[in-house]
UniProtKB/TrEMBL annotation:
Chief location: membrane
Database matches in InterPro entries: Yip1_dom (IPR006977)
Signal peptide positions on this chain: none
Compartments where located: Membrane
Name assigned to this protein: Yip1 domain-containing protein
GO CC annotations, alphabetized: membrane
Residues of the Yip1 domain: 8-226
Keywords in alphabetical order: Membrane, Transmembrane, Transmembrane helix
Species of provenance: Thermotomaculum hydrothermale
TM annotation in the entry: 27-47, 86-111, 131-150, 183-202, 208-227
Topological type in the membrane: Multi-pass membrane protein
One Pfam family linked to the record: Yip1
Amino acid sequence: MESLKLAFEVITSPFKGFEKLKEKKTFWLPFLLTVILSTAATGYYAFNADMKYVITQKLEKSEKMQQFSKEQADQIINMQSKVAKYAMPIGAFVGSFFFLLIVALYLFTMAKVYTSDLSFKDALAITGNAFFVYLLSTIIFIIILLITDFKTTPVESLMPTNLGYYFSSQALGKKLYTLFTKIDIFGIWFASLLGIGFHIFTEESLTKSFLTVFIPYIALIVISVLLV
């Protein structure tokens, strides 16, 4: 329970929390709790939503789908709707661990570039505790699933924490809508925590630490928009 208390302090009072984390360096309990709850919520959505309808709505907007006959398109939709029910929760579970390792490895590598003293265990502690912010996101997601009729709503359109929630893709166009969905409170919060944690552990300047985190963060958003 002490590690959960520390993780909560990290996301609510990060400068103080990360200073304490330098001594403790724990992260598995808050990280696993977030992953398990997130996986359960994603699975609940996947098995209760009308995935065939949701996928149909998405693919109808795709120019690539125009190349297929109606029979071929129906086969693709049926296959994807069946796979999505299992792929979404499995992806949420496995993807969380992959995300943890990739982000921690990036922080560890950048610390070496700056010749700063940051072990891989330190990088895991920073990332794993910052990840705890997504527990709050998951709780909001669960509440939305319980009080709304979400069956025909794409998962990215359920969370009011991103700008895309307040607009339609038809009104903005695919690229701008994708950009808006990527501008998310919890994503920015998580990136900010990484920057503060990197600053506290490496003693690099706060500006340098934030640039270290936000340059790739913004780059990934730009790439995702360009690929739409």
